[in-house]
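Hi F.,

I've been meaning to write this up properly since the lab meeting, where we talked about keeping a consistent format for the predictions we share between groups. The idea is simple: the sequence comes first, exactly as it goes in, then the structure tokens exactly as they come out, then a line or two of notes. No screenshots and no reformatting. I'm using this chain as the first example so we have something concrete to point to.
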Amino acid sequence: MATMNVSLPDPMRDYVQNRIDSGQYASVSDYVRDLIRRDQSAIADEERWLKDLDASIDESLGEMKAGGGHDLDDVCDTIIADIQNSARGAPRQ
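Output, unedited:
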């Protein structure tokens, strides 16, 4: 196992030591390893989310090319007309 030296300001060092003293971690190394695991997990979650988003966009583009979906301009025009009619007291379309 490799070794790394890390410099911390006193308040951070005290914080880590308090976490160890409270029994939440066995050592400074244990604490740092946990932080790294959490960071790795957060990055993996973000990458998975972005991959899922890309797949969803690709699926939506495929549906649009196949003639599915709605034109955004038409949807916005309908919403604006509904708002204007509602402001005039007219029933929704």
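Notes:
The chain has three helices and no strands.
The mean pLDDT is 93.

If this format works for you, I'll send the rest the same way.

G.
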